């Protein structure tokens, strides 16, 4: 197959070899969280979120025992790569992140004598031999919770035998000698800053052990990264000696995070550097010494589709009543490591049913940490981006369902009179007009304060045609149209438009036309000046029928969603591709456990439709959770080319929770299992749709 996320023929073998089953150990009677526990997790707090600019390309986050939040970073020139010739600094916040100190110097880099060590060369003679590989600098961190010491590794492709340590919550630092052991392959580990901060073992015979994610670069040679592997280092003497674990059971990995679950199992989650796809996961029963049950996570993508992986952030919330994990990474279906999200698992990493966007735009590497109980940082999650910004939020905010990301179906005309076209705006207000020329589009937008510029941003659409026209009124003002991507970056913009009640006025694009954007997912941004008003945008060459029926043609989708048990209306990557005559709503029914949002019919006098993206059909039996109400729900199944395979029988009556879908004419899904298919849900009356489920995946 040509899809860019999961090539099933090649990866099914991996799934069969590396078991996809959950842990062999049980959680010692600790139940997984369910929907009714969400309010408990929020702890009665009001949602709190803020994001701010932070000078960082390469950094680490941790929290001292007194609750002081620590942001470690490299500061030096040139800015685009502070890892070169840089010094290690820390910023401290003693009030939970409300205010921060200036950058305080921890120490300088350590120059490695690579000739004496018999490694390298790092003489600048070519790629992989760069001189900065001889400079050991900022590594990852760990806080010894029994002594209060904060430890900071110093690494390059080879680890320096030193750590910076602080015994006063990060106020002062001292460079101290440490020892590293070699792993079974004879290599030293490098717990660098692209690995998450370490943890303290709290269960079992190794209680108190310091365990830190790290990686190995064979022969300390960048050219051998494809042979490298994730591992961990641990210390049972408070950081004086560090012993490497056995290698993670997959080469080409590195940049990992790990947590200890309530039953003492170590869960490790790693990026890969040589392949596209999903994150790889393994477990340890001996406090991080050996690994078992390698599997590729079927939900967590390893960076965006056009990049071979990306460093992510992983933490476990400090609580005794369940294993809640958070995972931060770029949005998987947006190119270029952008739009950072945080995913939530309520069952120790088995599933990730909820996520929320933290910030649109560049994101790249991320680091996360959690505040400490009984301090000003308690209840906060801190996230640092490698693109010069940082965020702080609590679980009450993270678990509040955001508005689902919707892709509107192709239409010849998008009107602000339509209920679903408007996305957001700044300094703009909704207006109505009685102008006869605009009888079909009587609603529009104009500036709230005409002395300031403003804009209106549409919902996401698939650009239907390169022949784009605008209906507007700007006798004294101006209108500009911009096409922007999902990260908010401008792709194209027009020359200014002006004039009185211009209907279907052709657009003139600056620099180049928009032909190569047709079929791409974009947002339309209308920038207004002065008395400008905007009403609708139209496209030539689009079938009028598509305004009422969602079209699925041979898709320009970049990838097929991988098989999973549940497909949810608010999941990321998005299950919903487009919809008509529907609106999303938050679910607050405790009987619908694990579901956060659904769709319901807006105008009950008309048929409503919701189309899914392509999925690799996971199994032979599909189940649906829906509420037909006084109407009905029907499913249409399409093949990869968009041709109808079959229809379901009409579903009516009371609420259906995981009810088996029955197909007409005794149609069987069996011969289509693992193939790409699409679904269209047709809703009538006041029907609602929540999710579909496959109990048994085809590799089980």
What would a concise description of this structure say?
With about 700 residues, the protein is mainly β.
Oligomer: single chain
Low-confidence blocks of residues: 1-31, 545-558
The biggest beta sheet is recorded as: 12 strands, mixed
Q: What is the number of helices?
A: 4
The chain-level structural class is: mainly beta
Average pLDDT reading: 88
User: What is the alpha-carbon Rg in Å?
Assistant: 27 Å
What is the CATH first-level class name of the largest domain?
Answer: Mainly Beta
CATH names the topology of the largest domain as Neuraminidase
Q: End-to-end distance, in Å?
A: 22 Å
Which range does the strand content fall in?
A: 35-45%
Number of strands: 50
List the keywords:
about 700 residues; mainly beta; Neuraminidase; Jelly Rolls; 3 domains; twelve-stranded mixed sheet; six-stranded antiparallel sheet; 4 helices; disordered N terminus
Protein model, in words:
This protein is mainly beta. It has three domains: 43-398, 6 Propeller (Neuraminidase), CATH 2.120.10.10; 410-546, Jelly Rolls (Sandwich); 550-693, Galactose-binding domain-like (Jelly Rolls), CATH 2.60.120. The protein is built from four helices and 50 strands. The strands form nine sheets. Strands 27, 28, 29, 30, 31, 32, 33, 34, 35, 36, 37 and 38 form a twelve-stranded mixed β-sheet that branches. A hairpin with a 3-residue loop joins strand 25 and strand 26 (389-394). The longest helix is centred in the N-terminal third of the chain and has 10 residues, at 8-17. The model is unreliable at 1-31 and 545-558 (pLDDT under 50).
